[in-house]
Amino acid sequence: MNKQELIDLVSEGAEANKADVAKVLDTMLHTIKNTVAEGDTVNLVGFGSFSMGERAARTGRNPQTGEPIQIAASKAVKFSAGKAFKDFVNAK
């Protein structure tokens, strides 16, 4: 499912205008991105939580030559599904 299909389904279910649903979805995603980028966690009870993790710098190998390369430290986005979400998926 892509973003437009999600907007279509939500607008049908909520009996709302597609433009309004798109605006709400865009605002929600923007807020989640900004909150996680600032280092905070977004916890949606029953659905899951979005947070930021740190990856340490490390040494890797070039798969073509086998020569060692340095991989820089980076930030990663984590999503942990909530119990209700996991239970719903496992029940299907």
Description:
The two termini are 17 Å apart. A hairpin with a 6-residue loop joins strand 3 and strand 4 (68-71). Helix content is 45%, strand content 29%. It has helices at residues 3-14, 18-37, 83-91, and strands spanning 42-44, 48-55, 58-61, 68-71, 74-81. By secondary structure, the chain is α+β, with helices and mostly antiparallel strands. It is elongated. The protein is built from three helices and five strands. The model has no long low-confidence stretch (mean pLDDT 96). A three-stranded antiparallel β-sheet has the order 1-2-5. Keywords: DNA condensation, DNA-binding.
Q: Mind telling me the C-alpha Rg?
A: 19 Å
Averaged pLDDT: 96
Query: Order of strands across the widest beta sheet?
Result: 1-2-5
Helical fraction equals 40-55%
Total number of helical segments? 3
Shape descriptor reads: elongated
The low-confidence runs, each spanning 5 or more residues with pLDDT under 50, are none
Order of helix and strand elements from N to C terminus = HHEEEEEH
Q: Termini distance?
A: 17 Å
Q: In total, how many beta strands? A: 5
User: Which structural class fits the helix and strand makeup?
Assistant: alpha+beta
Tell me what portion of residues adopts beta-strand conformation.
25-35%
Main sheet characteristics: 3 strands, antiparallel
Organism: Lentzea sokolovensis
Family: Belongs to the bacterial histone-like protein family.
Protein name: HU family DNA-binding protein
Keywords: DNA condensation, DNA-binding
